[in-house]
Amino acid sequence: MENGNVLEASSRLRDDAQKLAASVGDFTEQAKDALNEVIETRPYVALAGAFAVGYLLAGGLSSRLTRIGLAMAGRYLIANLGGEMLENVRR
Question: Per the CB 3.0–4.6 Å rule, which of 29, 46, 48, 89 could disulfide with 39?
Fold first, then answer.
């Protein structure tokens, strides 16, 4: 490879890395804003979500009862989100 090609490739790589970092930063800000909105508007949902994440991280998925409960909760969540999406589409 010539020096010009190496310099050009490294410049493109640096530009791509900067774009990726900016995208990750934007995504992080959007996620933080969304999380803050959920905490302010639905504190009990946020608390339940935090409990669920802690439970999963602590290894709570090992029992069969937990898997059944998560399956039921997932169906409930999908049904509620589907209803909200339909309401938003109708508006």
Answer: 46
Overall average pLDDT of the 18-23 stretch: 88
- CA–CA dist 23, 41 (Å, integer): 27
Return mean pLDDT, the chain: 81
- Cβ neighbourhood burial of 66 (10 Å; 0-12, 13-18, 19+): middle
CB 80 within 8 A of CB 87: no
DSSP class per residue in 44-85: HHHHHHHHHHHHHHTTGGGSHHHHHHHHHHHHHHHHHHHHHH
11 CB-side CA count, 13 A? 6
